[in-house]
Amino acid sequence: MAFKEKLISVLNYAKGEGRLWWLKLNKEYPKVIMFDVIISLIPALIFGCILFGFKAILILLVSVVSAVSAEFLWNLIFKKPQTVGDLSAVLTGLLIGMCMPDSVPPVLCALGSVFAVVIVKQLLGGIGRNLTNPAVTAVILLKLCFPKIMNAYHLPFFHTADNTANYSFSNLFFGLHPGGIGETCSFLLIIGGTYLIIRKIISPIIPLTFIGTVAVLSASFSQNVLYDIFGGTLILGAFYMANDYTTSPTTNSGRVIFGIGCGVISFVLHIIFKGYDGVLFAILVMNIVLAIYNRTGFGKYKEKFILRVSNLIKRKPKE
């Protein structure tokens, strides 16, 4: 099939099942995407391991190995084609590990990775069919079940302040503050996100609207804007979790709404719970909203409405 015909087929397919269009384009496409995303995360991963030491390396390894093993065993037990090679389980494990504090027991990392791969992804049919982002859902589950452990962020070994909210811009931007293993260095995460945008792996719309909404709300309510943007999970979440192909919109207007929704929910949770980082919860809520929208047929009704209006406009009046 010629590329043009294949592209038209994909676009037609996307109208009915937008979440799976990227799987139909090419069986190797998921692997290409995951590989690029993993490459973009390497600088932040290396920095996190230097910042937090051997514990960080152990946590990341356990998270990735657990995710890959869970997917491999699931396919083996249920006699399904092996999908470990698409690297989606590797990416899921990395994202879970990056959100972990350096003091978390490795067994919790393994639990989160297995839950993400088996319950959130494989039970619903595998890659491209999950309703929510597996890594986001797993980390939230761990935060709800083990709040003290999951929120016990320690200071890096060369810190310059005692309170994250009092850190300077340079400390916040370059990752010299408490946080998850791979989420502290906004500078490297933005570089990685920019790489993905240049490679056309992700759209800049969701990250810009997500971060922009938080910034505007923070300034409007006289909050610490720099801390709200660079002091938590916002940069990692906006570039790498909210932009998940399966659980984010495929249209630009939908991406704007999705990003603004994430920003508003995140900020509201931040205010209500007095400084609590609500980024992951916001992404999960918007994932669920999008899933409901897609599955209740509202999207199809909207398409039919637009088609009818366009037909009325094009129709010539009778003489």
Written account of the structure:
With 319 residues, this protein is mainly alpha-helical. It has two domains: 21-158, no CATH class; 202-304, no CATH class. Helices cover 67% and strands 0% of the residues. The protein has 16 helices and no strands. It has helices at residues 3-16, 21-25, 29-52, 54-77, 88-98, 106-121, 134-145, 147-150, 169-173, 186-198, 205-220, 225-230, 234-241, 252-272, 279-295, 298-314. The longest helix has 24 residues, at 29-52.
Task: Indicate the topology.
Elements: H1 3-16, H2 21-25, H3 29-52, H4 54-77, H5 88-98, H6 106-121, H7 134-145, H8 147-150, H9 169-173, H10 186-198, H11 205-220, H12 225-230, H13 234-241, H14 252-272, H15 279-295, H16 298-314
Helix pairs in contact: 3-4, 3-5, 3-10, 4-5, 4-6, 5-6, 5-7, 6-7, 7-15, 10-13, 11-13, 11-14, 14-15
List keywords for this structure.
319 residues; mainly alpha; disordered N terminus
- Helix-strand category: mainly alpha
Q: Tell me the overall shape.
A: globular
> How far is the first residue's CA from the last residue's CA?
47 Å
Percent range for helical residues?
55-70%
N-to-C order of helices and strands: HHHHHHHHHHHHHHHH
Count of separate DSSP helical elements: 16
Q: For the CA atoms, what is the radius of gyration?
A: 21 Å
Number of domains: 2
Please state roughly what percent of the residues sit in beta strands, choosing from under 5%, 5-15%, 15-25%, 25-35%, 35-45% or over 45%: under 5%
Runs with pLDDT <50, length 5+? Answer: 3-22
Mean pLDDT: 84
Oligomer: single chain
